[in-house]
């Protein structure tokens, strides 16, 4: 009797996830292909190619150097999506822009899970239509009593600012400031210790080359640390529309409760 193997076990979720990560096609399509291929990943990829998802499979490993940010808001909530592609040509295409707006709206109105399901469904078709690798790199929502949003004219930078009080105009102005200045943190105390330690290594080398006595290094570095924290903190940066004030001073009694910035770097 000729030996044979009967494949009866269900496809494990880990195998489905691995195939999806490799191909970028929806989970259900990956599961069906793996079941037909009796768990063999390479055969499953061949099946996906025969079903017309070959282009997405081929392009999934190509680097994405371009893209756009998409922002939508309603009331006290805003959603921001960073969608990447390979070239500016596709980033400016109507189909790409439509996809990004659709995903941002789904994230705002339906939540993360449904937005992800929509992305799984829509992106492979967009890859085939536009001929480039496309993926959602980051997606987030922000809620605050006062919201300010800003998307730069080239759609490469998007910012959401949340305030506990104040006006929408103030929040919008601070969002524009953040788009231009790219602060990494909201307040000086938000700078993590590891970031300070990394800078201290650089400062020690600088002080050594400058011939400063080692006995005064700690005192000098205290000043450098204060400056570094303030330069990288949104609240303490000189406000772009009035450099005589810091952002904090411009806001008055209003406090920043949320800050999100996504960009095509």
- What is the fold-level CATH name, i.e. the topology of the domain at 62-143? Tetrahydropterin Synthase, Chain A
As residue ranges, the low-confidence spans are 1-9
Structural class: alpha+beta
C-alpha Rg, in Å? 24 Å
Number of DSSP strands?
Answer: 8
Question: What's the level 1 CATH class of the domain at 62-143?
Answer: Alpha Beta
The SSE string, one letter per element, is HHHEEHHHEEEHHHEEHE
Global outline: globular
Summarize the structure in words.
The chain is 50% helix and 21% strand. Among the domains are: 47 residues, Orthogonal Bundle (Helicase, Ruva Protein, domain 3); 82 residues, Tetrahydropterin Synthase, Chain A (2-Layer Sandwich). It has 265 residues and is α+β, with helices and mostly antiparallel strands. It contains 10 helices and 8 strands. The chain has a 3-stranded antiparallel sheet with strand order 1-2-3. Strands 4-5-8 form a 3-stranded antiparallel sheet.
Question: What are the SSEs and their pairings?
Answer:
Elements: H1 13-23, H2 27-36, H3 41-59, E1 66-74, E2 77-85, H4 88-91, H5 94-110, H6 112-130, E3 135-143, E4 146-151, E5 157-163, H7 168-181, H8 193-210, H9 217-231, E6 238-239, E7 242-246, H10 247-251, E8 256-263
Antiparallel strand pairs: 1-2, 2-3, 4-5, 5-8, 6-7
Helix pairs in contact: 1-2, 1-3, 2-3, 3-6, 5-6, 8-9
List keywords for this structure.
265 residues; alpha+beta; Helicase, Ruva Protein, domain 3; Tetrahydropterin Synthase, Chain A; three-stranded antiparallel beta sheet; globular
């Amino acid at each position: 009797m000729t030996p044979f193997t009967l494949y009866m076990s269900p496809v494990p979720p880990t195998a489905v996830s691995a195939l999806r990560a490799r191909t970028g096609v929806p989970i259900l399509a990956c599961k069906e292909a793996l079941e037909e291929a009796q768990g063999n990943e390479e055969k499953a990829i061949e099946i996906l190619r025969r079903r017309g998802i070959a282009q997405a499979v081929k392009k999934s490993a190509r680097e994405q150097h371009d893209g756009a940010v998409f922002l939508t808001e309603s009331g006290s909530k805003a959603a921001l999506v960073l969608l990447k592609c390979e070239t500016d040509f596709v980033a400016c295409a109507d189909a790409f822009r439509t996809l990004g707006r659709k995903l941002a709206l789904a994230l705002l109105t339906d939540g993360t899970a449904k937005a992800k399901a929509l992305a799984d469904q829509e992106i492979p078709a967009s890859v085939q239509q536009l001929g480039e690798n496309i993926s959602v790199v980051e997606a987030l929502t922000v809620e605050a009593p006062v919201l300010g949003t800003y998307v730069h004219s080239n759609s490469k930078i998007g910012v959401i600012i949340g305030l506990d009080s104040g006006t929408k105009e103030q929040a919008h102005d601070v969002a524009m400031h953040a788009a231009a200045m790219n602060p990494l943190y909201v307040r000086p105390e938000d700078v993590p210790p590891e970031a300070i330690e990394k800078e201290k290594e650089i400062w020690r080398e600088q002080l050594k080359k400058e011939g400063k006595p080692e006995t005064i290094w700690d005192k000098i570095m205290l000043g450098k640390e204060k400056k570094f924290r303030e330069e990288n903190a949104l609240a303490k940066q000189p406000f772009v529309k009035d450099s005589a004030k810091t952002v904090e001073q411009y806001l008055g009694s209003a406090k920043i409760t949320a800050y999100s910035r996504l960009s095509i770097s």
